[in-house]
Amino acid sequence: MTNLSKVNETIENYKDSEGALIAILQKVQEAYGYLPKEALERIAQARNISPATLYGIVTFYSQFNLTPRGKHIIKVCHGTACHVTGAERITEAISNTLGIKEKETTQDGKFTLEKVACLGCCSLAPCMMIDKKVYGKLTADKTKKIIKSYRN
C-alpha cells in the first residue's frame, strides 16, 4: 500500500480531538478494509505514540484487522444454543466448502470466516451471518447451498 491519502485525511480530521485514536483506527479500517502496516506507522507518528503501543491497542480490540478481509464476512455463532445444535458442523461445512479455517480469507478475496460468541438469534440456532443477513436453522447441506449462492 503506497497511498496514505485516506490515513492523512483522517488524521487531519481528528487533529484537535485528544481521545480520538479508536475513531481514527475505525475510519482508516473502513477506508482500506483492514489496518495496513504503513497506515499504523503513520498514525503512531501523527499521534506521537510508539508503534508497539499502537499495535497493542489494535490487537486488544477484536474489531480491528491487520490483514485484508473478504468481500463477504461469514460469522458463525458459537453461543450456547448454537453450540448444542451443531455450530461446529456448520463451521466445518463452510471450512470444507471454501478451503479456509477460522480467521482466514479465501485466495480470491471473496470470503472471510469467523466464529463469534453470539449473534443474538438463539431461536434460529444454529445460525450464521453473511455480511448483514442472518441464516438460521442450518444444516451442513443448507449451509453449503447458501455459500455456493454467494459464489455466483
Write up what this structure looks like.
The structure is a single chain. 21% of the residues are buried. β3 and β4 form a beta hairpin. It is built from seven helices and four strands, in the order ααααβααβββα. The protein has two domains: 5-60, no CATH class; 72-151, Glutaredoxin. The protein has 152 residues and is an alpha+beta fold. The longest helix has 12 residues, at 21-32. α3 (37-47) packs across α4 (51-60) and α6 packs parallel to α7 (140-151). The protein has a four-stranded mixed sheet, with helices on one face. The chain starts with a helix and ends with a helix. The protein has helices at residues 5-13, 21-32, 37-47, 51-60, 80-84, 87-98, 140-151; strands spanning 72-77, 111-116, 128-130, 133-135. It is 47% helix and 12% strand.
Give the SSE layout.
Blueprint: H1 5-13, H2 21-32, H3 37-47, H4 51-60, E1 72-77, H5 80-84, H6 87-98, E2 111-116, E3 128-130, E4 133-135, H7 140-151
Parallel strand pairs: 1-2
Antiparallel strand pairs: 1-3, 3-4
Helix pairs in contact: 1-2, 2-3, 3-4, 6-7
State the distance separating the first and last CA atoms: 29 Å
Shape by Cα distribution: elongated
What is the rounded Rg? Answer: 18 Å
Number of domains: 2
Question: What's the rounded overall pLDDT mean?
Answer: 94
* Residue fraction in strands: 5-15%
Biggest sheet overview: 4 strands, mixed
CATH topology of the largest domain: Glutaredoxin
